[in-house]
Specification:
heterodimer, A: alpha/beta, 27% strand, globular, B: alpha/beta, three-stranded mixed β-sheet, 13 strands, 28% strand
């Protein structure tokens, strides 16, 4: 038996924390390593960085940030954004990431999932799927692919993904809650853990993602930012609701 | 008082960085080496590892590291195995049929099952239940949660103090009210599909399937206790 996980996510741009509403109007919330250490001290089960720009130039910035963060925290760190090849994965792992998330690159070339899994082990690979109305989108939710999200989740799990990070794109940053229907469909379809993401505005949304959506973990950004809720408060509230998260 | 010195064995299986930092936070002076001579000379040896059992054993044997580890264990020097570093201490693994492990502990490593609500890799925090007394296990109460990430798990270690965890369906919600603490009657075994070795400890030889370096305070307490042996 494994407790369901609470994963604060930091959206990172140029080495700084940001969080946009549907990827527009970014706000600066500080140093990611500092924030990550705070989340760790506050009892986060894991921490996630998503580099939302991830241009070629800021690869060094990201690797340096990952190293600085990994040295300070005592929980696993997942890093995603702009990962295109096996070497990108290796580099982030070498700098202290525990898991690396890939998204568009896997859609473009599904065999990349097999290649990464073979090179670094399946437990290090998270495949991120951005879904809108059951369809897979890429390029930060701008480009439809025609792929069915459930079928794609099953394919990447088959190819060796260790975990799936499912983001409801129509809800990301809107704080109206996860898309529970697609979350449940994916969670039931695959035998690897599923992390629900996108659209969290309150604790009830997290509870619904875990219980109604059947997710193994919930990832959220905005709810933890700017001191609105601490991870510890959220954990206690989830426990009070009866969600099976780690008691502290 | 001088800091305890720990040698991390680099056999090309996974990231050593987090474990090195965690050992340092627990007060150790950490070095990293692949050289069997360094293993032979080390006060304390840490065997980390992530990846495949067969590849791990092949590297340990071909480099001479396996022999150095056997000698260190025989000499009663403190050793800590983490994750795959626990699995290689058993006799064999389903992951690599025909490849012998170090065989320090009696038992086999098998693939965890999957099923409705039962996910693999087993990933996340699970309660660890003590089976037998050992000062390093006792650094945390039975039922304390640690971070796991693995698809294979060891079974056995009869007659050796160890701790177990349970692989079972992720629980949804309880019908009403809060989740009680383990001591109040929530029994991991009640939802178990398979029980496996979460940690094993014989004298100064300690191994954990979970990652103490990813387990916040609980992991820190365990590492501190091992460094104090």
């Amino acid at each position: 038996m494994v407790y369901r996980r609470i994963i604060p996510c930091l959206d990172v741009k140029d080495g700084r924390v940001v969080k946009g509403v549907q990827f527009e109007g970014l706000r600066d919330a500080g140093d990611p390593a500092e924030q990550a250490a705070r989340y760790d001290a506050d009892g986060a089960d894991e921490i996630c960085f998503l580099d939302i720009t991830a241009t070629h130039e800021d690869r060094d910035t990201l690797a340096e940030l990952v190293a600085r963060t990994a040295d300070r925290i005592r929980v696993p760190l997942t890093v995603g954004g702009g990962v295109r090849k096996v070497d990108d994965v290796r580099r982030l792992l070498q700098h202290g990431a525990d898991k690396v998330a890939i998204n568009s690159a896997a859609v473009r070339d599904p065999s990349l999932v097999d290649a990464i899994t073979t090179a670094v082990g399946r437990q290090c690979l998270v495949v991120a799927i951005d879904a809108r109305d059951g369809e897979v989108y890429v390029r930060g939710g701008r480009e439809p692919t025609g792929k069915d999200a459930v079928a794609w989740a099953m394919e990447v799990a088959d190819r060796g993904a260790g975990e799936i990070l499912l983001t409801s794109m129509n809800r990301d940053g809107t704080q109206v809650g996860y898309d529970l229907e697609i979350t449940r469909a994916v969670a039931d379809a695959v035998t690897v853990p599923v992390i629900a993401s996108g659209g969290v505005g309150n604790v009830q949304h997290l509870y619904d993602g875990l219980v109604t959506g059947g997710a193994d973990a919930v990832l959220a950004a905005s709810i933890f930012h700017f001191g609105a809720h601490t991870v510890r408060e959220v954990r206690q509230a989830l426990l009070d609701l009866g969600a099976f998260v780690r008691p502290l | 008082m001088t800091a305890p010195r720990a040698l991390l064995v680099d056999y090309g299986m996974g990231n050593l960085r987090s474990l090195a930092r965690a050992l340092e936070r627990a007060g150790a002076e950490v070095s990293v080496s692949a050289d069997p001579a360094d293993i032979a000379a080390a006060d304390r040896v840490v065997v980390p590892g992530q990846g495949a059992f067969g590849q791990a054993m092949a590297r340990l044997e071909s480099t001479g590291q396996a022999d150095a580890l056997r000698a260190a264990i025989a000499a009663g020097r403190p050793m800590l195995g983490v994750c795959l570093g626990l699995q290689v201490l058993f006799e064999a693994s389903e992951e690599a049929p025909g490849v012998p492990g170090l065989g320090v502990f009696e038992g086999q490593v098998t693939l965890l099952p999957v099923g409705p609500g039962l996910k693999r890799p087993h990933m996340g925090w699970s309660p660890v239940l003590h089976a037998g007394d050992h000062p390093v296990l006792a650094a945390n109460p039975s039922g304390e949660a640690f971070y796991f990430v693995h698809s294979y798990a060891a079974h056995g270690a009869p007659g050796v103090p160890h701790a177990t965890a349970h692989h079972g369906p992720v629980l949804g919600s309880r019908a009403s009210g809060a989740v009680p603490p383990l001591s109040a009657g929530l029994r991991p075994a009640a939802h178990s599909v398979c029980e496996f070795v979460a940690a094993v400890a014989r004298g100064p030889l300690v191994a954990t399937q979970y990652h103490p370096e990813k387990s916040q305070e609980a992991g820190h307490r365990l590492l501190t206790a091992w460094l104090g042996l």
